[in-house]
Amino acid sequence: MSQSSAHALPSYLDAGHLGPWGIYLQQVDRVTPYLGPLARWVETLKRPKRALIVDVPIEMDNGTIAHFEGYRVQHNTSRGPGKGGVRFHQDVTLSEVMALAAWMSVKNAAVNLPYGGAKGGIRVDPRKLSQSEIERMTRRYTSEIGVIIGPAKDIPAPDVNTNAQIMAWMMDTYSMNEGATATGVVTGKPISLGGSLGRIEATGRGVFVVACEAARDLNIDVAGAKVIVQGFGNVGGTAARLFHEAGAVVVAAQDHTGTVYNPAGLDVHKLLAHVSNKGGVGGFSGGEALANADFWGLETDFLIPAALENQITSENAGKVRAKVVVEGANGPTTPEADDILHDNGVYVVPDVLANAGGVTVSYFEWVQDFSSFFWSEDEINHRLERLMREAYAAIAQMSREQKVSLRTAAFIVACTRILQARQVRGLYP
Ligand SMILES: NC(=O)c1ccc[n+]([C@@H]2O[C@H](COP(=O)([O-])OP(=O)(O)OC[C@H]3O[C@@H](n4cnc5c(N)ncnc54)[C@H](O)[C@@H]3O)[C@@H](O)[C@H]2O)c1
């Protein structure tokens, strides 16, 4: 029973409080009946371990002083240090960062990485700042959250609007404050500063690997299979190229510039070159333009949403004629759409599994930084493929045993691992 007055802001424990954190709480409620005796510990998942709000003041190029809201949330560290990206976006809020941190706990546990979950962000539109303003903001933010991050405590990485350069500034600021070079404090760094080979392509490669595992389970031959991809950036472009190289036929691609369609198959290498020259798939001569809304109803074996959240909704989920949806993006399917796809027999490989290739190679980067011994790209890809295949197998087995979707199965596997660690560690003091 809520004891708050009608005008008070809802407690963060209130699952009716819509938004990403409310959706996350509903997901935890959905999985609780499957946790057996571990359900005793389930409140652990509903409360972030630690949330830090920081003020980030900087001097702007024009001499004025600007203040930005910064956050770092460590949702859970039962299985290891916090791990999760830093987002620079004008819509960042504490509750969004809490949800993103919680989903990192689930993702890291789902693929069995020895990490907890964390996330950070600054509420800012970085396109309105100069490079030197972004650098000052990044450094001040890093200094403010420096009390809770560190190679053995919590390891940030890039997310929306942050990149290898920003990771380099974060690593430098943390290292200057520590008085020692600490490459392992962030991942997604430039190769010259302890970054890992294979990191840029890792998420798209992971999408392709789990898609092949799903294909085997469903008796789909990847060679000759049809694929449609929304988002032709890092994740979607890489996944499309790997499908193409495996003999699949990429028949449609959609991004912010439009949709291109070729029933005989798009030449993915030419399309990638077109995107890098023109900034998007629109205007590609190797296919015809298609209305964006018609993309979702194309008959295909694989649909790869790899752009934004909330793309498959109750409005278009009923039109989807794909056999398999592999979620490259984070949160592309709304909970209502998920139920519709499930009822229509569409096999959905959920984001927490399908796009975990990125954090997996981030983990490899961290391990390489600790030993200062760097692996070849082949070795990295080989280890990534093995880890993703093992994660898929464990989650698919849980889905068969409990007769639940892969998404619910991923949550069961992940929450069980987190709460087992909580239980066996016990409560301190
Ligand atoms: N890069 C990673 O390692 C990684 C890891 C995990 C999850 N993800 C998720 O994958 C998704 C894509 O990330 P990315 O790194 O490829 O980003 P990116 O910026 O390289 O590409 C994003 C793509 O989305 C397209 N897009 C943007 N707005 C669109 C719209 N309105 N309609 C259709 N397409 C639109 C863009 O045109 C672009 O092709 C995001 O949800 C991200 O959170 C990325």
UniProtKB/TrEMBL annotation:
InterPro entries assigned: Aminoacid_DH-like_N_sf, Glu/Leu/Phe/Val/Trp_DH, Glu/Leu/Phe/Val/Trp_DH_C, Glu/Leu/Phe/Val/Trp_DH_dimer, Glu/Leu/Phe/Val_DH_AS, Glu_DH, NAD(P)-bd_dom_sf, NAD_bind_Glu_DH
Keywords of the record: NAD, Nucleotide-binding, Oxidoreductase
The UniProt record lists the keyword Nucleotidyltransferase: no
Binding positions (substrate): K83, K107, S362
Residues the UniProt record annotates as site (Important for catalysis): D159
SMART domains, per the entry: ELFV_dehydrog
Iron keyword on record: no
Annotated ranges, domain Glutamate/phenylalanine/leucine/valine/L-tryptophan dehydrogenase C-terminal: 196-426
Chain sites annotated for binding NAD(+): T203, N234
Active-site residues per Swiss-Prot or TrEMBL entry: K119
Entry's Gene Ontology molecular function annotations: glutamate dehydrogenase (NAD+) activity; nucleotide binding
Signal sequence extent: none
Top-level division of the source organism's lineage: Bacteria
SUPFAM superfamilies given in the database record: Aminoacid dehydrogenase-like, N-terminal domain (SSF53223), NAD(P)-binding Rossmann-fold domains (SSF51735)
BP terms from Gene Ontology: L-glutamate catabolic process
Similarity comment: Belongs to the Glu/Leu/Phe/Val dehydrogenases family.
Record-given protein name: Glutamate dehydrogenase
